[in-house]
Amino acid sequence: MTTTIHSEIDHAPAHLRGLLRHFADLRDGTHGDGAVSRADKEHLFTAAVGYLGPYARQALAEMNDTLLLDTGTITATGVTTSRDGDVTATWALGWPEQEQAGVQPITLQAFYGRGFHHPHLRGGTVGDWPLNVFSDADAVAELPTLRSITAAELHNLVFQRDYRIVPATTHLSGRSGTH
Question: Which residues contact 127 (CB under 8 A, 6 or more apart)?
């Protein structure tokens, strides 16, 4: 049965495989290839962060290069554990206009909450997305998700202030950024 399930998942479009694995995890009470204990799931989480790192940075760098006109700085925390037992890894993109506006940077976060069945991806202003990454191929398949979270993050930050926090918007065609 497990072989059939994995075969069906493997034949699904790449961007839907993680979601199918997510649903199978919930159904089976496991994560990945049968991890049940918190320790085993945290081990898989740490590996997933390693796989995702280059693609999280790529999604943020694309945003920085195109919309922030290379004015931003990308930071990464690595895997951290809070006093409450949540395990996270965060990649962030900050830039001068964002800091001046007093809004948070664009954030991508791998998050494994203390009470969660398994980890998720999220943004600072965007909700959770299943994190089922067990190889580099799984991680690259999440690049569109990382790009979507990054774009949604910037969109939500603009709503918190205004479009002037996006350098490409104020620098287009020599515009000064006023109406």
Answer: none
In angstroms, the CA 79 to CA 43 distance is 11
pLDDT tier for residue 7 given thresholds of 50, 70 and 90: low
Answer with the residue of higher pLDDT: 64 or 127. Answer: 64
Question: Domain coordinates of the chain in residue numbers?
Answer: 2-174
| Count of other CB atoms within 10 angstroms of residue 91 | 25
Do 138 and 71 form a contact (C-beta atoms < 8 A)? Answer: no
Residue 59 neighbours by CB distance under 10 Å: 26
SS3 25: helix
pLDDT per position as a tens digit, 69-114? 999 999 999 999 999 999 999 999 999 999 999 999 999 999 999 9
What SS3 state is found at 67? coil
